[in-house]
Design brief:
single chain; mainly beta; elongated
Length: 178
């Protein structure tokens, strides 16, 4: 893709080339790989080149369970314009997650993410989620969802508990209380 823009005699340009591949290696084993490069020229004269590599795999050993692995590495180099010197930074992220749907009305999820950035301490984040909808069929639906994110590095925790009630009055009409 490419874009060139001129606004009040100020030019910006962005060109990107990405190649994405996905393959089913075996039934229940999918993999993906993406490679890309991006060139930016800002109106300030700063030129930035970014390179990105993404990879992932999904394993489905049983129809009720899925494991996901993901990795991303981005390197960015900037120079020129109002920058005093050339700068290089990068970000590496990885995530492993599992989703379990033992019953049609119950969904459980957990993940661990790590991120390392140039010049910053690395971080780890745990995420847990559960959702339960005991009255799946029929006009009245009750649901309960729980989500907790734990940032181990910064000792922060976010928790969300959301009950909901939905009454399907007629086709396309419903009342939803959350």
């Amino acid at each position: 893709s490419g874009r060139k823009e001129t606004v009040v005699d100020q030019n910006t340009e962005n060109n990107a080339f990405f190649l994405n591949n996905a393959a089913q290696l075996y039934p229940g084993v999918d993999a993906n790989l993406g490679l890309g490069i991006n060139f930016d020229s800002a109106a300030t004269g700063v030129k930035t080149e970014s390179r990105q590599v993404n990879g992932g795999m999904t394993l489905v050993p049983h129809r009720t369970m899925a494991f996901n692995l993901a990795y991303s590495d981005t390197t960015r180099k900037s120079s020129g314009g109002n920058l005093a010197k050339e700068t290089t930074d990068g970000t590496r992220t990885s995530e492993v997650s599992v989703a379990f749907n033992p019953l049609q009305t119950l969904y459980l999820f957990a993940s661990l993410s790590t991120q390392a950035r140039t010049g910053a301490p690395s971080s780890k984040t745990w995420n847990y989620a559960a959702s339960w909808s005991p009255l799946r069929d029929g006009a009245l639906h009750f649901g309960f969802s729980y989500n907790e994110t734990i940032d181990v590095t910064n000792s922060q925790k976010q928790r969300s508990i959301v009950p909901n009630l939905r009454w399907n009055i007629a086709r396309g009409s419903y009342v939803d209380l959350t």
